[in-house]
């Protein structure tokens, strides 16, 4: 359960115990839930933040600290472009205390969390330059991400198999370190006005999640 920090620490321990003499070459951060109603993680954080942002961050940091991941390993973060819908609203943020009442609020929580993933990815590039880090938008996949189906129109959806292709390419091919790859547009560079291009917000989020996981490292 990526939303439960104790579960994440248990996963790293199990991986270390199973492969005591080996390190992982890659980590693909593909966790993602879109809640239909507000709920909290076992540690009391809003569930989309917990599962999509905080748990994956702890997983990566613990794998680094405990040398489960190779120093020059490849880390792929799954993002999405729905976060752009937050532009011009009061929701250009990623926090553990966001509250909402319905599915629409859950969609906003999801977008906030995916914006947070991008901010943390950009911070990671600077803090762990030995890692080979990429960000990927796999497409809008017709999956069970949300109960009742994706909010996107059916004609825009791709299958799970199609959605895996861009990530598989990044995992198996030589890619530019630190780059963002989109399933239809290729390499993407954030514009100056893009909500993702906000180093101060990224720094604040990094400091926040580091504080929240300190007792689990």
TrEMBL record:
Keywords: Oxidoreductase. Coiled coil: none annotated. GO terms for molecular function: oxidoreductase activity. Belongs to the short-chain dehydrogenases/reductases (SDR) family. This is Uncharacterized protein.
């Amino acid at each position: 359960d990526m939303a439960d920090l104790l579960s994440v620490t248990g996963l790293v321990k199990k991986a270390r115990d199973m492969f005591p003499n080996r390190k992982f070459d890659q980590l693909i951060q593909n966790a993602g839930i879109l809640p239909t109603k507000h709920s909290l993680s076992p540690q009391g954080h809003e569930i989309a933040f917990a599962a999509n942002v905080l748990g994956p961050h702890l997983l990566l940091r613990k794998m680094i600290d405990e040398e489960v991941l190779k120093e020059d390993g490849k880390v792929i973060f799954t993002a999405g472009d729905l976060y752009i819908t937050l532009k011009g609203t009061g929701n250009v943020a990623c926090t553990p205390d966001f509250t909402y009442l319905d599915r629409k609020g859950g969609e906003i929580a999801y977008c906030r969390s995916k914006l947070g993933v991008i901010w943390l990815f950009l911070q990671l590039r600077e803090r762990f330059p030995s890692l080979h880090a990429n960000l990927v938008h796999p497409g809008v996949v017709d999956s069970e991400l949300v109960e009742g189906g994706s909010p996107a129109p059916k004609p825009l959806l791709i299958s799970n198999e199609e959605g895996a292709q861009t990530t598989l390419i990044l995992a198996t091919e030589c890619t530019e370190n630190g780059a963002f790859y989109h399933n239809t547009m290729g390499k993407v560079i954030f514009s100056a006005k893009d909500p993702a291009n906000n180093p101060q917000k990224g720094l604040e989020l990094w400091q926040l999640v580091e504080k929240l996981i300190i007792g689990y490292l």
